[in-house]
Design goal:
Layout (H helix, E strand, L loop, with lengths): L38 H6 L3 H26 L13 H8 L7 E3 L5 H6 L4 H9 L8 H4 L10 H16 L5 E6 L6 H12 L4 E7 L2 E2 L2 E2 L8 H8 L2 E6 L3 H16 L5 E6 L18 H8 L3 H11 L4 H24 L7 H4 L8 H14 L5
Parallel strand pairs: 1-2, 2-3, 3-7, 6-7
Antiparallel strand pairs: 4-5
Length: about 375
């Protein structure tokens, strides 16, 4: 059901990476940075069971993310794209979707994957370099990662058109970042979705930096205003407030499902780590900026809110233990991941006889000679 508090008036432009501007620009919040309910939060009320689920999933996502960073530093992973700091934007939004809604991620949506039931091994296989993707997209209604910036938005729009032609009432949801929003693909996707009124929900995690380029150097107006210019309904929300993200996404996805055309949710958040484990963010952002965003940590603020609502310390202890258990499982599953058998490269390429079969036979003979055959 629509809630009037969710319809926000766009704020004036500001320098988004300037910490002093944060207080002046306030997207929709139900829980403030200090963990206290805002006026909108008091009016709306809190579903404590939902808040518990969101908090627990954020704790698990952070545990996996930090363990994956450690694994990369120890050479167990080739690369990792951190999601620390963006847990609320991901967990809050994905919990607002129906299981049948198909998701197109970019490459940082590990929390989304966990909520959709992916195991640590499935999430890590690509980053260990042993698979193009580690899961079955049909089973989880979660597409493979798209490492080419913004391409998944066009894939999602095409998929949504296919769903309509099939008479499927699901909503296609696509995640992307502020950097991808500067790509032509994303703007083409907005236009295509709007002109055909396709059932697509765009979710932008505006984490303030496109690798080392701040949003102030990427666009002169906010993304949710730009999307509205294409004809999309749009919402602007504090992406570190899981309850607000869930509320806004619920309203947005319901509008799409009712046939009111595509929509966009812009979640203002921040990536605490670098763009990837190959990046050093200290070269382009200040400690002051990082500290300002750490004070808006999505886990800490929801924990404070839950405590104020009467959730006991013992429950948090249990959740913390679940996080440590997942971290240990992440390490074990990663180290158990084995590389593919090279013979599989020949198995699914040609349906008819092909000269490459000679290479396959030669390779198998080599394996037999060296005692490494199956």
């Amino acid at each position: 059901m629509s809630h009037p508090a969710l319809n926000q008036t766009p704020a004036p432009p500001a320098t988004r990476t300037d910490p002093s501007a944060l207080a002046a620009r306030v997207p929709l919040q139900l829980v403030g940075p200090d963990g206290r309910l805002t006026e909108a939060g008091h009016l709306r009320g809190v579903d404590v069971d939902l808040a518990r689920r969101l908090y627990r999933d954020m704790v698990l996502a952070r545990a996996l993310d930090r363990e994956a960073v450690a694994l990369q530093r120890q050479g167990e992973l080739s690369l990792w794209l951190q999601c620390e700091g963006q847990e609320a934007a991901q967990v809050g939004s994905v919990h607002a979707l129906a299981d049948r809604d198909h998701i197109f991620p970019s490459y940082r949506e590990h929390a989304v994957g966990l909520v959709r039931g992916l195991t640590p091994a499935e999430l890590l296989a690509q980053w260990r370099g042993i698979a193009h993707a580690g899961w079955d997209p049909a089973e989880h209604h979660l597409h493979f990662n798209s490492l080419v910036l913004g391409t998944q938005t066009l894939h999602a729009v095409g998929y949504a058109l296919g769903c309509r032609l099939d008479g499927d009432d699901s909503v296609t949801v696509v995640y992307f970042g502020d950097g991808a929003a500067s790509q032509g693909d994303v703007n083409e996707a907005f236009n295509w979705a709007a002109t055909m009124a396709l059932p697509v929900l765009f979710v932008c995690q505006n984490n303030q930096w496109a690798i080392s380029t701040p949003t102030s150097k990427q666009f002169g107006t906010s993304l949710h205003d730009r999307a509205a210019g294409f004809g999309l309904r749009s919402w602007w929300v504090d992406g570190n407030d899981a309850l607000a993200v869930h509320a806004v996404t619920t309203e947005a996805v319901e509008s799409v499902r009712r046939g009111q055309g595509p929509a966009l949710v812009e979640a203002e958040t921040y990536r605490i780590g670098g763009h990837s484990t190959s990046d050093d963010p200290k070269r382009y952002r200040t400690d002051e900026e990082l500290d300002a965003w750490r004070r808006r940590d999505p886990l800490a603020r929801l924990r404070t809110a839950l405590t104020d609502l009467g959730v006991e310390a013992a429950w948090f202890d249990t959740v913390d233990a679940d996080g440590r258990e997942l971290a240990a499982r992440t390490r074990a599953e990663c180290q158990a991941l084995a590389g593919p058998d090279l013979r599989d490269l020949f198995a699914e390429v040609y349906a008819d006889p092909h000269p490459v079969e000679r290479e396959r036979a030669s390779y198998e003979a080599h394996l037999e000679l060296t005692g490494r055959g199956r």
